[in-house]
Design a protein that fits this description.
Elements (H helix, E strand, L loop, with lengths): L4 E6 L6 H8 L3 E4 L3 E5 L17 E4 L2 H12 L5 H10 L1 E4 L1 H12 L11 H11 L5 E7 L5 H8 L3 E12 L1 H17 L4 E6 L2 H13 L7 E5 L2 H13 L7 E2 L5 H9 L1
Parallel strand pairs: 1-2, 1-8, 4-5, 4-6, 6-7, 8-9, 9-10
Antiparallel strand pairs: 3-7
Length: about 260
């Protein structure tokens, strides 16, 4: 039909929350997982940092980091006993309800910060609750926003970034998105095609593939989730001479996406 509005979500959307948000904004939604995640939490990970018991709190900003730590604990890896004791007896800060749920279900501990939608909001909460200089174990991926560490260290705190997983593009899945977009763009010149990018690694891999396969990028309505993704995608668009207006959801949540698509 003329004027069809379609939205491609570049993430694993098992619970369909983002798809329902896009549908609520009047779009036909399709989801495609484009990243594979691998734990890098091995026997030497914690050897590179101070003893885990010396930290005052833990920080998780993604479910992938929670899953990597939980897997290490299940395998009774090196320092597992000390790490399990640390998580059970110290404050665990998180970003968002998804990470909070993962911490509860996979690590069996309570967390603080589920109402925080991004790293900046979490850093503000931590600074309010921790006025004195403290040290934080930040369990993260290879690519993560520097916002949290920057804000906390500027206030006199110490942050150890403990990388426990890496995300890599699945090039077969990326190729599938190319085929989908080529079909959508050829169906109807008056249709609206929105693409939601959730990660720097996945977003850049897709943009490069689409450019190589001559997808008309300027016909895409590009939406990003989170400042780290926005910065990476904005720089890529600039470096490649693309004039797309890049939209960032005010909140990295389904409600934030619905508002962005409805604007």
């Amino acid at each position: 039909p003329t004027g069809m509005r379609r939205c491609l979500l570049l993430k694993d959307d098992d619970d369909r929350r983002y798809a329902r948000a896009a549908q609520a904004a009047g779009f036909v939604a399709s989801s495609q997982a484009i990243l594979t995640t691998k734990s890098t939490f091995d026997e030497l990970t914690l050897e590179q940092h101070p003893a885990i018991g010396s930290f005052d709190a833990a920080i998780f900003t993604s479910r992938n980091a929670v899953a990597a730590v939980a897997d290490h604990l299940r395998r009774d890896g090196n320092h597992a006993v000390a790490l399990r004791r640390f998580l059970a007896s110290h404050v665990v800060y998180v970003v968002g309800p998804g990470t909070a749920t993962a911490v509860s279900e996979q690590l069996q501990v309570k967390s603080v910060g589920s109402e925080c939608n991004n790293a900046k909001a979490l850093s503000k909460l931590i600074l309010q609750q921790t006025p004195n200089a403290s040290s934080f174990a930040f369990f993260c991926g290879q690519v993560h926003s520097p916002t949290l560490s920057t804000c906390l260290t500027a206030a006199g705190h110490r942050v150890a970034e403990i990388e426990v997983y890496v995300s890599q593009p699945d090039m077969v899945a990326v190729a599938a998105t190319t085929t989908t977009l080529q079909q959508w763009l050829s169906d109807d010149a008056t249709s609206t095609t929105a693409v939601v990018l959730f990660s720097p690694a996945g977003g850049l891999a897709c943009l490069q593939a689409w450019q190589q396969q001559q997808v008309n990028l300027e016909k895409l309505r590009l939406i990003v989730i989170g400042p780290t993704t926005r910065h990476a995608v904005d720089r890529w668009l600039h470096d490649n001479g693309c004039s797309n207006e890049l939209l960032e959801c005010a909140a990295p949540t389904p409600d934030g996406l619905e508002a962005c698509l409805s604007a």
